[in-house]
């Protein structure tokens, strides 16, 4: 390790289990950026929190495959955990694979995930949003998470895939359990629940794929089944993993974008008023909301060679947490008002909420489209939209979002 690391007793311990962290992690991120931006945690992993360093890490060619962890106490933890069955999605999902496997999988999936196909969903997304807003208007108040932010992205990804008739509510429950695999998990009961959900969801997905092979249509699932390049097609296990990933990634993070974004607007009435007064602000506003409160807080990488960030050398084989949400509040990059919501912020699209580099989120355009349509329809429809009760958070460290957002619509 080279210069830049303060004495151990002066390093603020990164503690995501601290009381209040999941409600507001940003003070802890700010302390790390200021005093230990490249922080070797006593548990054996590293935490990187400044924008320039996180950006460099994501684009460095570092690995995402856990088998490449060779340095630090993380190795001992993984060895203790070897008896746990690896979820199928971890073995075959493109987000958990390096090149050339990642390149191949992403290229095949991307063939069915074009900008044209995403934009074609706009009318249907508008219909879904209007229907949900109709129900909210009829009651005069609602919890926006279960009544809009959660069902909308799930309905969109299910229709985009062309999912056959099945128990969609059960799939949503299973994906909510599966997403906990992205969190630090120590409770054996939770780990067992994740494994069981993975196995059940894989079985449901396999049945849907079998049905779709007999009933092809103009949809994403058919396109994935038929996707081919130079004779290369997705295997059955790869198909199951990518479709499972689309359910989880296409749902959970967008829920947080819609809920966290709405809460941020309601807590900043001056910015909400500016958006109401100028609809042209909306595209930049969506990116500023993503920057201000990122739906996904961090992204992991494993160094494949010694890597120097902010003057600190991280050994090869180290597990590194790249703080996406922290980078998106870094004053050195965004200026002294980085902690402020400013919908007209220049360069807002440069946020790292969708990652960067080869693993940049494939569904970024879809998430932006869903948020744009939701806000452009909800805000004019409910000019008196206001908080109407206590807001609660989902208690998650990584896929962090509002769990309950009670509002009155006037």
UniProtKB/TrEMBL annotation:
Origin: domain of life: Bacteria
Protein name according to UniProt: Cytochrome P450
Source species, please?
Answer: Streptomyces flavofungini
* Lineage of the species this protein comes from: Bacteria, Bacillati, Actinomycetota, Actinomycetes, Kitasatosporales
InterPro entries to which the protein is assigned, alphabetical: Cyt_P450 (IPR001128), Cyt_P450_B (IPR002397), Cyt_P450_CS (IPR017972), Cyt_P450_sf (IPR036396)
The similarity annotation says: Belongs to the cytochrome P450 family.
What is a single Pfam family found in this protein's UniProt entry?
Answer: p450
Record keywords: Heme, Iron, Metal-binding, Monooxygenase, Oxidoreductase
